[in-house]
Amino acid sequence: MRIGILGTGAMAAALGGAWVRAGHEVTVGGRDPEAARRLAARIGATGGGDPAAAVRSAEAVLVAVPAGVAAAVVEPLAADLAGRVLLDCTVPMAPGPDGPALTTAGGGDSVARRLAAAAPAARVVKAFGICHESIWTMPRPGFEGAPLGVPYCGDDPDAAALVAGLVDSMGCVPVHCGGLDRAALLEATAVFAIGAWWAGGEARHVFPSPALAPGAVDDDEEE
């Protein structure tokens, strides 16, 4: 798959590197073309340069910039993004008195919804924002004997299928969580998990499967 990346920070490097290892063609674009070229060279990407170049060569484009500027970065590229899958991994978060807090700039819409408004002909999918960037540096992310599950939300079935295939190519399990109207839930979940880690807890211990409970039975068996 040909993937463009908008951004040159930690998530751009981690996910871009993971996709290169999975055999995809990655092009990095950034407001600083030299920084984009350096990152591309570091992760083994096939190019580097301005954002428009990264978009035009891609089937899917990752937005890996701060959430507060994501729509402003995407809007000038709207024509080039038409028909392409736009991956949103951003987390709208700011420090709060009790730890990380979800921001509500943009009238309370999710960042994914703001990107869809900025590039209305793109096919936006919210994905890859739950985990810390360090997780994506693992060759095949997995824990306690199971591969990492990657939740995603999107309205377009073909775009969702493309993301599922991308996740699968990384050795992870795609977890479809509904349409783009549920993207805000993924953003809030990411902030919740970061807050749990910030407080010294383990977010994974908060969400055990009911199947792990002693004497658990399937819903079908209860009927």
From TrEMBL:
Highest taxon listed in the record's lineage: Bacteria
GO molecular function: oxidoreductase activity
Sequence ranges assigned to domain Pyrroline-5-carboxylate reductase catalytic N-terminal in this UniProt record: 2-92
Keyword Oxidoreductase: yes
One Pfam family recorded for the sequence: F420_oxidored
Keyword field: Oxidoreductase
Protein name: NADP oxidoreductase
Organism (species): Streptomyces rubellomurinus (strain ATCC 31215)
Origin organism lineage: Bacteria, Bacillati, Actinomycetota, Actinomycetes, Kitasatosporales
